[in-house]
Amino acid sequence: MGGVVEGALFAGYHVERRLGSGGMGTVYSVRHPRLPRKDALKVLSSRHAEDPEFRARFLREAEIAARLQHPNLVTVRDRGDEDGQLWIAMQYVDGADAAELIRHCSDGLAPARAVGIVAQAAEGLDEIHRSGLLHRDVKPANILVAEQDDGSDRVLVTDFGIARSADESTTLAAGGGTAATLAYAAPEQIDGTAVDHRADVYSLGCTLYHLLTGSVPFPRDSPGAVMYAHLNEPAPRPSAQKDDLPPSFDDVIAMAMSKDPGDRYRSCGALAEAARLALADDPVVADTLGTTDHGGRRDRLLAAALVVIVAVAATVSTLLLRDSGPTATASPPPTTPARPSVNAAEWGAYAYIVETFAELLPPSPLSFGYQGLGSCLPMRGKEVTTSFDTPATPIAGVYCTGDGDPVRALEVVCNADRSPIFPGSSFVRAEGDERWTRNSGSGHVNWGSGFVYDRTIRGLLEIYFDEPSRNFCSVTVVGGDSGNELHARWWSSAPL
């Protein structure tokens, strides 16, 4: 069996240099045989070449990654077998992994950079989860960071060698060959219980802690001690490791690293939003995130992390103005083809909202709707809560996060008594409004820009309805750099 030699050809590629090694193989910088392009070539370790399980896992990496096309995921370009050695050709990233960045900053990265890296990694991980897959080995070494021309970081998640379909239940304790790195492994990966996307949320929380402080969450003398800490010890406080970090990061890490998956953020993106809020250290945010009231911390933290329209609360109150006249009676929604089947039991008292917008919202809270809308939570008035088991209030809503292209968040707010909601807006900068008419009905749409979670300007778009079957609800969308972007890229094709 031939090996890989620097300066020689392998599978037609000219091998330039070795970039690094991992549990499954070695990665080389190579030149493409026909195109003026550099690739990264991963070759399965020779000690695993005859192992059918490892060969199958290696091929699975290519199959999984090839289906995922996202700016924050490394792209797989080709694969093959060269004299019995399996290889994958991947996008070459001219930069370093986050573990190397930490080695050069032993006391942790600048908080803004750490949060920025985690935010981009979260977008890639959420794309993996939307595809029904799990990464299972989220750690700094699997997060590549390339400096762009403007000095900003471009972040890509790599190494899907142990990725699994979301319905597979292999854990560290199951003996199935899973090789998640222990320093970042979720408790359920250790104790053999069921694993879902929230294990990646836990690992991303561990990664954020490492980036902020320069230390892994549980530095211990033995693997057994590390496992015990993940299973039993409270999450470490970043502010105790570095006193210049805002204390609000303590609650972010505590929630991300909760022992019970149900107590964690519902997505990696939600964790990233909470980290951005902690970084901003806004007085309002600090009041919400810095509490030591553990009994109520979870609800308040989710509210702060997920309700991104922080500085436009006036908009919500305006949206909920009621008609002083008689209450309108709802009529059945118009019949539309191929409406998704809504799981009313899972939505509970909020099912009427989802049924009203069945083509927009996910059929269940843990599935995905139009353009990847997911990680949905209920709203009681203006507050986000954690469970759809909570009773709905006279003013209720559903809040979902988007894929960021361009929608970052969307909320549907409804009056439970079916009284109409009338158009109104409170933008920092108004950009447009218009009457709209579609086959589904008619209404009014406003758009503009406003300050959101990290004091940046984001686009806002507000939609209202004329017909009694929907005029008791409004839809607010956040994303893009302006309302004009949302109007052009999202509103024109939204299923409303």
From TrEMBL:
Superkingdom, taxonomy of origin: Bacteria
GO molecular function: protein serine/threonine kinase activity
Domain Protein kinase span(s) in chain numbering: 13-285
Cited PANTHER family: MITOGEN-ACTIVATED PROTEIN KINASE KINASE KINASE 20-RELATED, SERINE_THREONINE-PROTEIN KINASE NEKL-3
CDD domains: STKc_PknB_like
SUPFAM superfamilies referenced in this protein's UniProt entry, alphabetically: Protein kinase-like (PK-like)
SMART domains given in the database record: S_TKc
Keywords: ATP-binding, Kinase, Nucleotide-binding, Serine/threonine-protein kinase, Transferase
Keyword RNA-binding among record annotations: no
Keyword Transferase: yes
This enzyme's EC code(s): 2.7.11.1
The protein's name: non-specific serine/threonine protein kinase
Pfam families for this protein: Pkinase
